What we know:
Layout: H1 3-19, E1 23-34, E2 37-44, E3 54-55, E4 57-60, H2 67-79, E5 85-92, E6 103-113, H3 116-122, E7 128-132, H4 143-160, H5 174-185, H6 191-201, E8 204-210, E9 220-224, H7 226-234
Parallel strand pairs: 1-6
Antiparallel strand pairs: 1-2, 1-4, 2-3, 2-7, 5-6, 8-9
Amino acid sequence: MTTGTIHNINTWLTQINNDFKAAVSVDCVIFGYDDDALKILVSKCDMPPFEHEYSLLGDIVHPDETTDESAKRVLIAKTGFTDVFLEQVQVFSDLNRHPLGRVITVAYFSLIKIDKDHLDHLEKNAHLQWLDVNEIRSLAFDHFNIMHTCLRKMQKQIREQPIGFNLLPKNFTLLQLQRLYEVVLNIVLDKRNFRRKLKGLGILKDIGEIEEAVSHRPARLYTFDESVYENKKVTGFNFEL
Length: 241
C-alpha cells in the first residue's frame, strides 16, 4: 500500500466522520401462531407522523453489540423468552425511511409459541399486541414492506427447513401440523399426501399419547425429533414439504 493510497483512505475516513451521520437499528418481525392465524407482535408508535399506527419491535444497535446481539436483546425484552428462533433477512437503507434522520435497519424474523408463559409476560407490556398478518393494511415507517419481505422469506424457509415446529406446542397432532402449514402458506393441503410426506421424512416421534379434553375423537400426539433430523442432515437429507 503506497503513501498516497494511505493518505486517500485517511481523507475518506475523515470525511465520513465529519459529513456522514447514520444510525444502525434492528427491526424484528416476531411471528406467532394462535387460533388458526399467523400473527406478528407489534407496538403502538408515538413518533410523528406515525402516531397511533402500529410498528414492528426494534431498537438502535448499541456501540458494544452486533446486530444479532441487538435483535436477541429486543426479543428477550419483548417476549420474555431467551431461546427463540431468529433469522437475519435483509438490510433496509432507503434515505428517507426514518423521520429523525439517516437510519439503516437490519430486519430479522423470529418464531415463537404463543403460550401461557409468553402471555403472562405480555400482560406487563400493555403497549404490545398480536395482530393477524392478513388483517394488517399498514404499519409505521417502512415496516409494512419489512413485514412482507420477512413473511416471504419465512414462507420459503418453512418449506425447506423444519422451522415450523417453533410455532407449535412441543406435542402436537398431525392435523395441527397440517393446519399450521396451510395457514402460514395460505394453501390447502391434501391430508393423505401430507401425511405420506411426513412419514417419509421420518422426523416425527409418536409419543404414545392422545389428546385430552377435546370435543372430537382424540388424535395421537407427536413431537419433532431434532436429533434424528440432525443425524439425517449429515447424510444429505433434504427437508421439503
